[in-house]
Every structure is written in structure tokens, then in C-alpha cells.
Amino acid sequence: MINRRRRLRASTAIRDLVRETILTPKDFILPIFVVEGENIKEEISSMPGNYHYSVDRLYEIIDEIEKAGIRGIILFGLPDTKDEVGTSAWTDDGIVQRGVRKIKELNKELLVITDICMCQFTSHGHCGIMDGCVIDNDATLHYLEKIALSHAKAGADMVAPSDMMDGRVGAIRNILDENNFKNVSIMSYSAKYSSAFYGPFREAAHSAPQSGDRKTYQMDPANIREAMCEIEDDIKEGADIVMVKPAISYLDVIRWARDRFDVPIAAYSVSGEFAMVKAAAEKGLINEKNIAMEMLTSIKRAGAHIIITYYAIDACRWLKED
Ligand code: PBG
């Protein structure tokens, strides 16, 4: 007797019936970049189809998000001024804080997540406070607390520390609790690798380190057991959601995390993953829709059901077409 697996592949209807992994618009979170200034909507050259928005034009992207059926965004801010300690990251009228307030004004229901990091705001472009040429872990925590608190005050529903300092989740949880923001949740970039896939983002966010690299704080791409330790630490410190980043080259990490931990797992399909597909599609080498949807499906199949992706709006449109 032959096992005729092909019987369940014979038509669209039967394939749909037996499909194990189903993407929905509810899975996606869209990154948004907000800049100082007025009347700005400028395409980001390294990430076609993504824009820098000034606060007064955020309504355009929020409108698109609502129409697509996306429920959450993660906000990145580009300040006008940078200094050694990233002061513009925690001021009340900082670019992220004003962006959050505007988005909440436009749509109260939309889940607003903010990236907690210093690299866009420091003159040296590192994710922490420098002591000579090293990043001072414990000195940085104090600044991360200030940033998280200011985002919560502005109305963020969730903060997402991406700096990779040790102890930051606990420090942020404490400061939020002490200030009566017990209901602001933490999505930690727990397994964040020192990856070349962030290149286009650093151009978009003006956040490349001026000297050196991020290898003393972000993880070595070769390590997976260490990622489990990072995730375990973050959960113990109070992370509500843990993230693996990047996604496509780290599907094994997502799977290990899914099998070992019971908190929700997010994956960030980063700028380089997006830009590679875009570039190949523009050259006519691949079918953009099919490749992008296959990649997103594989991320969910690996075990992440929260997917941060620059393809969020397109993916929602493509899902409707099918
Ligand atoms: C900030 C931050 C980065 C990304 C998200 N938050 C860049 C970095 O760590 O250098 C990357 C996102 C992307 O590539 O899409 N630390």
C-alpha cells in the first residue's frame, strides 16, 4: 500500500482545510519611524515603501494600519539632537513621547509599543553609556529606566528594551511598578543577535555606532543555548513577552524558545530580511508576495505568533487576496 499524501494536496479547498499554520493580520506588528519637523513623509532609501513621518503626518500611516486590520505598532524615534547620555530619549517632549501621544490621540485602541534603547539618541551610537571605550552596563540601567518611564507617561502600552544590557528588564519593571504603571507590559528583545541584518535599519534610524560594533552586548550568532539563558533571565525579571531577533536565520532559536518557555514568543523580521527580498524582487529575480508570505509563515510555524515585520501592511493585503 502506498501512503497517498498527495490526496490532501489535490485542491485549494483541501489544502486550506489541512493547513497547519495560518497567518492573520492579528499576528503582525508594524515598525514606524517618527522624525522631528513638520509635514514630512519621506521614503527611507534603504527600506523601500517605509517612511519617516513627522508627528503631524502620522495620521496617514495610522489610517493605513487601521484599514489593513493591524492591531499594533512599534515606534522608533529619530531626535534632532544627540549627546553622550542620550538626553533626548527621555524628555517629555522627545520625539518618541510626542509620537506616542499623537498615535494614542488618533486611535486609542491601537497597541503602542516603544523601543527602549539609546543608540538613536547617543552621539556615539552605542546602546548604552560609555566609560572610555566600554559600555557601562549598570550605569546604562538608570537611563533605560528613565526612558521607559517617560514612554509610559506618554501613554505607551508596552515597552520593548532592545539594548541587551544585563538586568534591564528587572530595572524597568521596578521603575514602572513604583510609578504606578503596573499595567504597562514588557516585550523584551531577549535573544537579540549581533547581526549584519540590521544594516538598513541603522541607515533608517541614524543609529550606527560611530566606532566599534555591538558584539560586547548583542549575542554571538553562533549561540543558541546562551539565547535560552537570556530568555530565562528576562522571564524571571518580569518580561511578559520575549523576542528573538532577527527571525529568518534564527528559526531554530524561535523553535527552541517555543518548546522551552510558555510565555508568548515574538520574532522580529528585521530590516535586512525585508531589504533583501525587496531588492531581489525589484530585479525580477523572485516573486515578492510569495517569498514574503513563505517567510512569514515559516516564522509562525517555527513558533512565534507575534511577528514584527515591515511587510505587515502588504501581508494583510495579500491575505485578503487569497
Ligand atoms: C536599536 C534597534 C535596532 C533594531 C531594532 N532596535 C538596531 C540595532 O540594534 O543596531 C534593528 C531593527 C531592524 O533591523 O529592522 N538597538
TrEMBL record:
Pathway: Porphyrin-containing compound metabolism; protoporphyrin-IX biosynthesis; coproporphyrinogen-III from 5-aminolevulinate: step 1/4. Mg(2+) binds at E230. PROSITE patterns: D_ALA_DEHYDRATASE. Zn(2+) binds at C117, C119, C127. The keyword rRNA-binding does not apply. Belongs to the ALAD family. Catalyzes an early step in the biosynthesis of tetrapyrroles. Binds two molecules of 5-aminolevulinate per subunit, each at a distinct site, and catalyzes their condensation to form porphobilinogen. GO terms for molecular function: porphobilinogen synthase activity; zinc ion binding. Its EC number is 4.2.1.24. The active site is at K192, K245. This is Delta-aminolevulinic acid dehydratase. Transmembrane segments: none annotated. 5-aminolevulinate 2 binds at S271, Y310. One of its GO terms (biological process) is protoporphyrinogen IX biosynthetic process. Its cofactor is Zn(2+).
